[in-house]
Write a structure and sequence with these properties.
The protein is mainly alpha-helical. It has a domain of 247 residues. Strands 1-2 form a two-stranded antiparallel sheet. Strands 3-4 form a two-stranded antiparallel ribbon. The longest helix has 35 residues. It is globular, with a radius of gyration of 23 Å. It starts with a helix and ends in a 5-residue tail after the last helix.
Length: 567
């Protein structure tokens, strides 16, 4: 470990904290329907869209109607993407003549990008045309991110509104988030990336002559535009197979830092937006404090393990930490931080191969996802997932003080607690159930590159990443098979929408309640005690649920390593 490595982590968090309120102010303006500086230019575009689509932007939706419209929109996008990928050979912007994907492969990718997972079993530069990258993938990166933020807004309204059934309008939320936030920021972001050396061209391949005189084909494409939204929207799907370790996606240490900041910035801003929405910004800061604490501990452990390296190699004079599977331009500290950021934020981008991390270093990204990716999490999904844990935490606090639990002025009753448990239970049920099936079937066992605990970690990580809608991989699992395409596709769909629907039901229930002012018997939800309770509830639920799986995988792998055994 080095001073520079720890300084990188501190500077990263410092910049994000400075950006939290500005990002939150912009998000709150969109949440509240306020006019922004971009309305003068883009307002006519927004109104024109509503007229063409026949949408009344002021029409309120109850939670059921909001859920139905959201689901219909995402199902339609999934079907569209499936068609594009299957018919890729016949569509334009396919200079290499790539064939369409197989039925199971196209299904997996369509679900993956619809659910903001961006799990990729293929190498983008050798399987997808520029047309497919733009139509089937980049568009989804915008819509899935906007869906997450819109759903967070709906839950915020559930807490903020009183004795009403309306949670806003799904189409209005989607349009405003895309038009006034994601699109303009990504235009500027992509311009910066182009300036930094990221390609943005419709040319798919160029031929080059190496210094030895050999001919080499270099893949190109509209990379910068996809890179910008994949990071800002916490999507993570790489244009190239090497993802953010590829110099065309991530040219320098500066772009590496910018990419990590862009992954977290909207998640940080949404915590402040929530506090503003419920009339007490300290509520948002308390949530952010709990998130930052869990993240910082995880990032520190990951860096510590990777900087220490494999003790079995120390006697051979190998020093400098574990560089296996890492891009030498970034080194141990930046790679460990990137892994912690992307897995805490539901973003599948990677600049190092997690399969090559040390056992406990690789356990941190795995555990980040297993917590439900509520440690910042995906845009929108992170904050509404965290608030589900907050409902359980305030229920525990209510038991302590012997009163009906209250949170930001709303009584938390049996209905909300049951729905929160239902939403949270989806992750362990599908992750552990799917991993168990894969670990005992011939088709499932054909996937892992390694045997023993590390091979089980590869299976467990794949299911965890899919259900958690993260999309990163250990990189040691051969997942492009009918078995894994089918199992992981179902896991991604359940992990996204079987959490969203109970969450919206909670939002509808809360919106119908009257405001209950805090009293002397109320448990305070803005101080250090509340932050500690939140952290404890999240870690205990995650730890107790997944500890047996972690014990069979990375923990056993670590004990094997320190015991001097090679697999």
């Amino acid at each position: 470990m080095t001073v520079q490595g720890w300084l990188l982590i501190l500077v990263f968090l410092g910049i994000l904290l400075a950006l939290t309120k500005p990002a939150g102010l912009w998000l709150y303006a969109l949440y509240d329907g306020r006019r922004t500086p971009l309305h003068a230019l883009l307002g006519p575009v927004e109104r024109g869209f509503y007229r063409l689509a026949g949408i009344d932007p002021a029409a309120e939706m109850g939670w059921r109607r909001y859920a139905v419209h959201m689901l219909a929109f995402n199902v339609a996008l999934a079907v569209f993407t499936y068609a594009v990928l299957r018919l890729q050979y016949y569509l334009p912007l396919n200079a290499p003549g790539f064939a369409g994907l197989s039925p199971d492969g196209a299904m997996n990718v369509a679900i993956s990008f619809t659910t903001n997972t961006n799990w990729q079993w293929y190498a983008g530069e050798s399987a997808l045309s520029n047309g497919s990258q733009m139509l089937a993938l980049t568009i989804h990166n915008f819509t899935s991110a906007a869906t997450g933020i819109a759903l967070a807004f709906a839950l915020f309204r559930g807490f903020a509104r009183r004795e009403t059934s309306g949670l806003g309008n799904f189409w209005t939320d989607m349009t405003r988030v895309t038009l006034y936030l994601l699109l303009p920021v990504c235009v500027l972001y992509a311009a910066y990336l182009i300036w930094a050396g990221v390609p943005q061209t419709l040319t798919q391949q160029v031929a080059a002559t190496t210094l030895e005189g050999a001919q080499q084909t270099i893949a190109l494409g509209p990379v910068a535009s996809q890179e910008a939204i994949k990071m800002l929207g916490t999507n993570g799907g790489g244009f190239f197979n090497a993802n953010s370790a590829h110099p065309f996606e991530n040219p320098s240490a500066v772009t590496n830092l910018v990419q990590m900041l862009s992954i977290f910035v909207l998640g940080f801003g949404l915590t402040w937006c929530f506090g503003k929405a419920v009339g007490n910004t300290r509520q948002g800061w308390a949530i952010l404090a709990a998130m930052v604490f869990i993240f910082a501990v995880g990032a520190g452990v990951c860096y510590w393990q990777e900087a220490g390296g494999n003790p079995m190699l120390h006697g051979l004079g190998v020093a400098g930490g574990n560089m296996e599977g890492k891009e030498v331009r970034f080194g141990v500290a930046a790679s460990a931080l990137f892994a912690a950021v992307t897995t805490a934020a539901s973003c599948g981008a990677v600049n190092a191969m997690h399969d090559s991390f040390t056992a406990l270093g690789g356990m941190i990204p795995l555990f980040n996802i297993q917590l439900g990716e509520v440690v910042v999490g995906g845009v929108g999904a992170g904050i509404y997932g965290f608030l589900l844990f907050a409902i359980l935490a305030v229920f525990v606090a209510g038991l302590m003080v012997g009163r009906t639990p209250e949170y930001v002025g709303k009584k938390i009753e049996a209905r909300e607690v049951k729905l929160a448990i239902l939403a949270i239970a989806v992750l362990p049920l599908v992750i552990l159930g799917g991993a168990a099936i894969a670990a005992v079937t011939t088709a499932g066992l054909a996937g892992p590159l390694n045997k023993g605990p590390h091979g089980f970690s590869e299976i467990l990580y794949a299911l965890t990443s899919s259900v958690g809608n993260n999309g990163s991989a250990f990189a040691g699992l051969s997942a492009g098979t009918p078995f894994y395409n089918g199992v992981l596709g179902v896991a991604m769909w359940l992990g996204r929408f079987f959490v969203i629907v109970p969450m919206l039901a909670i939002a509808g229930s809360l919106a119908a309640k009257r405001y209950t002012p805090p009293s002397a018997g109320s448990f305070p939800t803005t101080g250090l005690l509340w932050v500690g309770l939140l952290v404890g509830v999240i870690l205990i639920l995650g730890g107790l649920t997944f500890l047996p799986g972690l014990a069979l995988g990375p923990i056993a792998d670590h004990l094997s390593m320190v015991g001097g055994h090679l697999q």
